[in-house]
């Protein structure tokens, strides 16, 4: 699964019409990983072939972008220093709190995000970008390592990889030690398109502005992050502003049109509220109306306590019976 260097043909370029591939929830190992990588690579390659077949299109390949849009390996986000890791075969650019310095990236609303970037061992880009979104309560380290669906595997194959901790978690204003003045409004918004999803769009756009990334991206996530990956796809290359309006997704500084070329969601949810606070009415074998899923909202606390008392009494009888058998035996 791991490669020491990109193939001679280079990585698939995502330069065509947005193609969304939604993967079924899968465990990140074995055949599932091979399929996931195939999904991302095939989507990007398909987009590239579509672009080549058109005489002209609304989004030119990055090779046609002005030189000012390209990179001589600028510091990602203007902050991060990249170091070659010979034992791994990639360049790693750590962010967050590094050496006593706050190297977090300010998102669109100024909230600081702890983000890392992983790059191929050589070259100056732009590279196709894979954005990896963490699960609930986890962080960027979830996708950093040698696994087939982690940053090192993709960077070795010629991709740039963006891993960051979602706002409100860990170093992104979650841990008490990370809560600087800029975190005043950095709380969790529960995968809100106007905030968490826009963070992904904004950070990816910053890398495009710097010439590090191609303007068509692949995105994956686990659980909490998987739902956001699907939201990115469903937004259809648009940004939902804080007032709810939808506008074209472009990079923040150079206004280069951005798009999602591939999506692979692992253990995704469709309704976060009912996933976090279920009321027991959902079914895997029959359709359940949205009204039943939210009324009542969550489990009735009085009913829950009654069930708990019943279970407690039951297991007390079981324990007493077994204790009597042990004494007699």
Question: Please, could you describe this protein's structure?
Answer:
This protein has 329 residues and is of the alpha/beta class. Helix content is 29%, strand content 18%. The protein contains eight helices and 13 strands. The strands form four sheets. Strands 1-2-7-9-8-10-13 form a seven-stranded mixed β-sheet, with helices on both faces. Strands 3-4 form a two-stranded antiparallel sheet. Strands 5-6 form a two-stranded antiparallel sheet. The protein starts with 30 loop residues before the first helix and ends with a helix.
Shape: globular
Order of helices and strands: HEEEEEEEEHEHHEHEEEHHH
Could you tell me the radius of gyration in angstroms? Answer: 23 Å
What percent of residues adopt helix (DSSP H or I)?
A: 25-40%
- The termini sit apart by 58 Å
Category from helices, strands and their pairing = alpha/beta
Our count of helices gives: 8
Strand order of the largest sheet: 1-2-7-9-8-10-13
| Biggest beta-sheet profile | 7 strands, mixed
Total strand count, please? 13
Name the poorly predicted regions.
1-35, 41-72
Strand % is 15-25%
Mean pLDDT: 78
Structure summary:
This protein has 329 residues and is an alpha/beta fold. It is built from eight helices and 13 strands.
How are the SSEs ordered, and which strands pair?
Layout: H1 31-52, E1 83-85, E2 90-93, E3 96-98, E4 101-103, E5 105-106, E6 112-113, E7 115-119, E8 127-133, H2 151-156, E9 160-164, H3 170-174, H4 196-209, E10 213-222, H5 224-234, E11 238-240, E12 246-248, E13 259-266, H6 272-276, H7 290-294, H8 301-328
Parallel strand pairs: 8-9, 8-10, 10-13
Antiparallel strand pairs: 1-2, 2-7, 3-4, 5-6, 7-9, 11-12
